[in-house]
Amino acid sequence: MAVRVVVGAQWGDEGKGKLVDILSKDVDIVARYQGGANAGHTIEIGDQKYVLHLIPSGIFHEHCTSVIGNGVVIDPVALLEEMRFLESQGIAIKGRLKISHNAHLIMPYHKLLDSLVEKGQTPIGTTGRGIGPAYYDKAARVGIRIVDLLDHDILESRIRRNIEDKNQIISKIYDAEELDVDKIIEEYKHFDELIDGYVTDTAHYLNQAIREGKDILCEGSQGALLDIDHGTYPYVTSSSPISGGATIGLGIAPTVISSVIGVMKAYTTRVGLGPYPTELEDEVGEHLLTRGHEYGSTTGRRRRCGWFDAVAMRYSVMLNGISSCGMTKLDVLSGLEEIKVCVAYEYDGKRTDHFQTNLRTLDRMQPVYESFPGWEEDLTAMTSYAQLPANARAYITAVEEMIGARVACVSVGPKRAQVLFPGDVPAW
Asked: Is residue 193 pLDDT above 80, yes or no?
């Protein structure tokens, strides 16, 4: 039995979906533990590209059960679209998808308020999917959960009460059109009919699976540096993507987790606002953007690109208890004569290797770089780790030493076959 957690170790968009898809062939259950439809996990199988926002990446393996845990906030529109799309592609989900009865629902007023707030004077750079407002209501104890769908009288009373309050904010503060409460009630009653067969006490299901010795993979969304407690607040997500979030978001004990796998790019990217010490706004940054196709899979927004930040990554390794990593997009670095890694920061003339989450301090940090020779070879056609250029392997080794975690696999392209392992048997 193994319970492993896969976390994004940077600012999100590291390629977690692909790695989870690959690992899923050897596990019984993949369970998503936080976030919502603001996530975008991209998997390429053959000539087909799939982008999942809510359903775990393990759904592509017939033997694997996919679980949406209680820590996820669920947008019915996004979930149903995803379910229909997968079924249209011949991927069976009945009996293979389980949705926590304790998961909170994203309501139309969450998405509307998210967009209205983001248009205000202090935007954060959210996806506008209603994630933050849904978690806000959850913390305020006025959220609506999947279990509330089962009793239509309770559902209706809670929706009416919430919309009465939200409409006051929508109309009087933002001068926007109020929502139609009756229409929303009917929509969510219909949603209940469509997902009733998938709703489960997933905490009980997962703990029973653990007792039976099943192998479980816990899948997070976003990245550790966007964690609401440990990230660059307030430019963070509204939940805990770090490995500790898996215990809360799934209802499993921390003592059952056997290992944590971090996913990191061979460089760094960030979407939206917030400090970013190694950001490049030059031709190298343009190279990373263009060669890496760095546009958000959920929003299509252009990602900010920069050199690998070993200071931030060491912080992530510490927070998550990462013992091994998957490095993605190594192929994007091909063609660069020189590759840099941020090994420390300078602040007011002093050098530090301590990652700061205080915005005013982190904004003033200047990266201290160590340079490595690049390589010209195209890595995308390589089928074994040994084929990688010597300079590429030296770069990987240097990163391992800097962050204090082993690189257990390297991705050199978007497809399943483009993942290379240093040894015959991956050691996670």
From this structure: yes
Whole-number Å distance between alpha carbons of 74 and 68: 9
Q: Round to whole Å and give the CA distance between 37 and 15.
A: 16
353 is catalytic: no
Q: Could you confirm whether 13 is annotated as catalytic?
A: yes
Its pTM stands at: 0.92
Q: pLDDT tens across 120-132, in order?
A: 656 666 667 899 9
Rounded to an integer, what is the distance from CA 268 to the centroid of its chain?
A: 15
User: Which pLDDT tens digit goes with each residue over 6-21?
Assistant: 999 999 999 998 899 8
Which of 41, 53, 61, 287 is catalytic? The answer is 41
Q: Read off the pLDDT of residues 378-406 as tens digits, 9 standing for 90 and up.
A: 999 999 999 999 999 999 999 999 999 99
The answer to whether residues 344 and 351 touch, using CB atoms and an 8 Å cutoff, is yes
